[in-house]
Amino acid sequence: MTTAREGALVRYEVSPSGVATVTLDDPATRNALRDPLLDDLLARLEHARADPAVRVVVLASADDRVFSSGGDLKSFASDTPLIEKYAGIDRFPRLFRLLGGLGKPTICAASGDVLAGAFGLALACDLVVAREDTRFGCPEIKVGVFPFMISALLYRSVPRAVANELMMTGRMISAVQAAELHIVNAVVPAADFDEEVGRWAGLVASRSPLLMRMGKQALDATRDLPLDAALDYLRAQLALAFGTEDLREGVSAFRDKREPRWTGR
């Protein structure tokens, strides 16, 4: 199923297997994360969260050179009143929180350079599959902007010294280097990229949507909790999982050497 509206900057399509592909499609700005695109993206992700047919979300780009150029620098330097700018940049934390609390796995299909705010978008996803010629970085410091919002995600993803280097120098890193830093899960030749993204999405979509949602929610809730509090929360979630039909079906299917039939209950 495909849904679209005239002038939309983000395309949305759901496959029969439950893969929702959310595609940034604003080539005139290199998919700059300006307010209209962010509003479209937030709306598409909210739709995916509420759609029971969706099992995994793939964030993709219609531009094969750049995933996204990041925040809209023109708006940063505009004469818009400061209070309006402050209200507008709320879209970034809302987006990062939404990806964490989506209840469904997210895959960033990095088919081109992932820059500035888009780097934060990739870091907010659960998995990243990158084309081998893709670069990642926070180049905004070169034009007098510090990657404030991204720093929270970057500090949670890579060693402190590396995060500081990327943010303070604006240096770009390759997809292979990103994989070495455990930012990227797979680096794929261009000819195999779409197939590999599909393979990852299909694999994740084949798991129990109920247990995946419970797991995603648990990860989001315990990410920054002290160990004791995290363990208490996770123990309760595991106990709830014991009462699901999907857990019993998964164990039965394993014993019977067959594919499980998930009911989401």
Give structural notes.
- The chain has a 7-stranded mixed beta sheet with strand order 1-2-3-4-6-8-11, sandwiched between helices. Strands 5-7-9-10 form a 4-stranded mixed beta sheet.
- The protein is 47% helix and 17% strand.
- Helix 1 runs parallel beside helix 4 and helix 5 runs parallel beside helix 6.
- The radius of gyration is 19 Å and the shape is globular.
- The protein contains 12 helices and 11 strands.
Label the overall shape.
globular
Structural class by sheet pairing and helices:
alpha/beta
Strand order of the largest sheet: 1-2-3-4-6-8-11
Strand content: 15-25%
Order of helices and strands: EEEHEEHHHEEHEEHHEHEHHHH
In helices, the fraction of residues equals 40-55%
Radius of gyration: 19 Å
Q: How many strands?
A: 11
Largest sheet: 7 strands, mixed
Unreliable sequence segments:
none
In round numbers, the mean pLDDT is 91
SS field, number of helical segments = 12
Distance between the termini: 25 Å
